[in-house]
């Protein structure tokens, strides 16, 4: 099976870890191809997706070939095209079970067939900001910032406690750095429109503003 991955920001080994099946013939692209430039491709994987109109229009020309977009916060309703959302945050890409949102039953059936051939499986997530895993993780990271700003413990100690206590591969501060504070803030703000519990911690917002000013 030929899979085309679109990314300027991910290393080849990171990309290939998403579908580790050795039979996959990877086509690594830095930009969205112009329509059907690669007729052998059975799946497009856009790791650098943004919800901009120009990129969405370019990706739409690749349909009906399945187009997977790394859209953790933007919903399919907001995107407006029948792409397949996937959770591409660091720490979630590896493994044989992926978190997806499919636009309709016919697409879900096609995805199921593709995943069977790839020896992987997926879980269908609701078309909501953050899906399931990222929403939970963003809440944990936010609570860690609340804990730190209240001077309960240091960032290093909080990270260590979470790794030892929950067997997480990274602590909340380490994971937030790996994902990017901007991504975390963006998801928390989206979630907090309907649930005030997700309002970003003041210290987290200050850290984000400091990054923007650098």
Topology summary:
Blueprint: E1 2-6, H1 12-16, E2 25-29, E3 41-46, H2 53-60, E4 67-70, H3 76-79, E5 84-86, E6 97-101, H4 105-118, E7 121-124, H5 133-149, H6 155-166, H7 172-179, H8 181-192, H9 202-213
Parallel strand pairs: 1-2, 1-3, 3-4, 4-5, 6-7
Antiparallel strand pairs: 5-6
User: Over the alpha carbons, how many angstroms does the gyration radius reach?
Assistant: 18 Å
Strands across the major sheet, in which order?
2-1-3-4-5-6-7
The residue fraction in helices comes out at 40-55%
The helix/strand series, from N terminus to C terminus, equals EHEEHEHEEHEHHHHH
Distinct helical segment count: 9
Low-confidence stretches: none
- What is the global morphology? globular
Kindly identify the CATH topology of the largest domain: Rossmann fold
The class by helix and strand makeup works out as alpha/beta
In the CATH hierarchy, what is the class of the largest domain?
Answer: Alpha Beta
Describe this structure in words.
The protein is of the alpha/beta class and 214 residues long. It folds into 2 domains: 2-124, NAD(P)-binding Rossmann-like Domain (Rossmann fold, 3-Layer(aba) Sandwich); 133-213, N-(1-d-carboxylethyl)-l-norvaline Dehydrogenase, domain 2 (Orthogonal Bundle). Helix content is 43%, strand content 15%. It has helices at 12-16, 53-60, 76-79, 105-118, 133-149, 155-166, 172-179, 181-192, 202-213, and strands spanning 2-6, 25-29, 41-46, 67-70, 84-86, 97-101, 121-124. It has a 7-stranded mixed beta sheet. The model has no long low-confidence stretch (mean pLDDT 93).
């Amino acid at each position: 099976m030929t899979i085309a991955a679109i990314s300027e920001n991910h290393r080849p080994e990171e990309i290939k870890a998403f579908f580790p099946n050795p039979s996959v013939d990877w086509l690594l692209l830095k930009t969205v191809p112009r329509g059907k430039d690669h007729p052998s491709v059975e799946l497009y994987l856009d790791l650098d997706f943004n919800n901009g109109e120009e990129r969405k229009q370019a990706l739409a020309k690749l349909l009906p070939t399945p187009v997977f977009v790394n859209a953790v916060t933007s919903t399919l309703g907001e995107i407006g095209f029948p792409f397949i959302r996937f959770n591409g945050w660091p720490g979630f890409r590896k493994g044989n079970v992926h978190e997806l949102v499919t636009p309709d039953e016919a697409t879900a059936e096609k995805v199921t067939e593709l995943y069977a051939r790839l020896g992987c499986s997926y879980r269908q997530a609701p078309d909501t900001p953050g899906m399931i895993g990222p929403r939970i993780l963003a809440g944990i990271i936010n609570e860690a910032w609340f804990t730190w700003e209240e001077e309960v413990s240091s960032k290093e100690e909080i990270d260590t406690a979470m790794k030892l206590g929950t067997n997480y591969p990274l602590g909340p501060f380490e994971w937030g750095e790996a994902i990017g504070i901007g991504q975390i803030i963006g998801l928390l703000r989206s979630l907090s429109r309907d649930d005030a519990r997700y309002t970003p911690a003041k210290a987290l917002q200050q850290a984000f503003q400091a990054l923007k000013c650098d």
